[in-house]
Design a protein that fits this description.
By secondary structure, the protein is an alpha/beta fold. The chain is built from six helices and seven strands; from the N terminus they run βαβαβαβββαβαα. A seven-stranded parallel sheet has the order 3-2-1-6-4-7-5. Helix 1 runs parallel beside helix 2.
Length: 173
């Protein structure tokens, strides 16, 4: 696993499902922390994750302390609309854990106060206060992957399309 994504008490099943699919696509672990606003068997959660759930390295930590025991503090980078530093300044390393708050409350204030040097935001112009959680995770995760250079080369998706096309042609014969 190149990177880890952690969500603190996520509330909206489709957001978490979309983030799970993103983690499957990037070979990133997904950590769900604390009480969830849904069941892991939720239909909307499963639908948003499609058939990729078996490819997700999923961890559910029942409380913050259990997460802290599993992931060392120095690996964590925190993301919040209330942070002052841009995510472009975050020094992502292999095995970093990108931590996000939930959709309604955001990142807990205690984290912002305790680790201001490790808190980042996505810059936005205009009247919008925050982005959808799944969108924010996607932006930050792909920036992290760019920094550690683990994203597929541009030629690889084309190779996959050619292979799929050849398989399709051979079935028609």
């Amino acid at each position: 696993m190149a990177l880890h994504v952690a969500l603190i008490e996520p509330q909206i099943p489709p957001n978490t499902g979309n983030i799970a699919r993103l983690c499957a696509a990037t070979d990133s672990s997904l950590h769900l922390i604390g009480q969830l606003g849904f069941s892991l068997a939720d239909r909307d959660l499963r639908r948003a994750g499609l058939d990729y759930w078996e490819h997700v390295d999923l961890w559910h930590h029942p409380e913050w302390r259990a997460f802290r025991d599993a992931i060392s503090r120095d690996r964590c980078l925190y993301f919040s609309a209330n942070a002052t530093r841009s995510y472009w300044d975050a020094a992502v390393q292999p095995n970093s854990c990108l931590v996000f708050g939930n959709e309604t409350l955001g990142l807990p204030e205690r984290i912002l106060e305790k680790h201001p040097e490790r808190c980042y935001r996505i810059p936005m112009n205009g009247p919008v206060r925050s982005l959808n959680l799944a969108t924010a995770v996607g932006i930050v995760l792909y920036e992290g992957l760019r920094q550690i250079r683990t994203v597929d080369s541009p030629a690889e998706p084309e190779d996959r399309r050619k292979e799929a096309h050849e398989r399709s042609r051979s079935r028609r014969r």
